[in-house]
Amino acid sequence: DQLISQIAAGEVVERPSAVVKELLENALDAGGSQITVRLEEGGVKRICITDNGKGIPPEQMPLALARHATSKIASLDDLENVNTLGFRGEALASIASVAVVKLTSRTADAAHAWELEGSHLGTVQPSSGAPGTTVNVQDLYYNTPARRKFLKSEQTEFGHCAEVVRRIALARPDVTFTLTHNGRTIDHWIASDMAKRSAQILGEAFAEARIAIDEASGVLRLHGFAGLPTASKSRADCQYFYVNGRFVRDKVLVHAVRAAYEDVLHGDRFPSYVLALELDPALVDVNVHPSKIEVRFRDSRAVHQFVFHAVQRALAQTSA
Ligand code: ADP
Ligand code: MG
């Protein structure tokens, strides 16, 4: 059983940044409006995420660490209409099988916090702390040295973690995020709106040369900002696309945006953008592999056309 857990964990938590992603999604699902991510040694030594969300009642803490325990899906029908980010109920259990996990949590009406360390078999004990949840993940892969060997340098692993924080922070400008590494504050973004958050994260050059997009057609809506070529830091990872609030890297979407830029600007540079597509959840399949960020559209031609034309029209306005 322990072995099966560790193999499954490899799928969910292939590196520190995957742990950061799962914990951030949980914090957001819990309604946190202030989230702090503390990392040590690229996240391998320690990943500690604190939120001010609704908390976990003490009697549910063991369940939170047990496999296939999710509080987010009540029936199979819910799978079609997933609004929360996590719904498989295996992230915390997987992480706990390859690291030392401590949950500390306090609900709004509780007199004090409670904590649970190790696994669902541990004992829930009184603790202290403000309402919300802290998940502390210590010594990732301490018991699976083979997996630990695949990790890159501390700076590389930290870079992946920081990128996950940026992706999520861009999707949720209404939430305050703080990121520290080895005790130093690296990022601190106060809750604001998409215009400000994207300027904070992509930089002033982007903020000064970008076009706002907000177009809707039927069940599809595309909104966000498309940078003009002068705004490009020519960094490939400054292209952020979201589908129903999730960061995705999808061939159809990337192609549609690229084609629109080529059509209007004829440039060989491919500028930065932050774009969010919203559509009926029934028209897109997000229930893919845990560590992947791909989606499948029911009608990818229609999505491609819509995104292409929306970006093309926005860009054409400025070059006219
Ligand atoms: P999932 O998110 O797929 O439900 P997880 O293993 O990520 O599964 O989390 C298990 C459960 O633990 C969640 O369903 C939720 O009830 C609880 N939980 C985890 N993190 C938090 C948090 N930060 N705040 C409140 N509840 C949490
Ligand atoms: Mg989750």
UniProtKB/TrEMBL annotation:
GO cellular-component term (any): mismatch repair complex
Keyword Hydrolase: yes
UniProt keyword Transmembrane, yes or no: no
Gene Ontology biological process: mismatch repair
Sequence intervals crossing the membrane: none
Sequence ranges assigned to domain DNA mismatch repair protein S5 in this UniProt record: 198-316
Gene Ontology molecular-function annotations: ATP binding; ATP hydrolysis activity; ATP-dependent DNA damage sensor activity; endonuclease activity; mismatched DNA binding
Keywords: DNA damage, DNA repair, Endonuclease, Hydrolase, Nuclease
Role: This protein is involved in the repair of mismatches in DNA. It is required for dam-dependent methyl-directed DNA mismatch repair. May act as a 'molecular matchmaker', a protein that promotes the formation of a stable complex between two or more DNA-binding proteins in an ATP-dependent manner without itself being part of a final effector complex.
Similarity field: Belongs to the DNA mismatch repair MutL/HexB family.
Protein name: DNA mismatch repair protein MutL
Residues included from the entire protein: 15 to 334 of 636
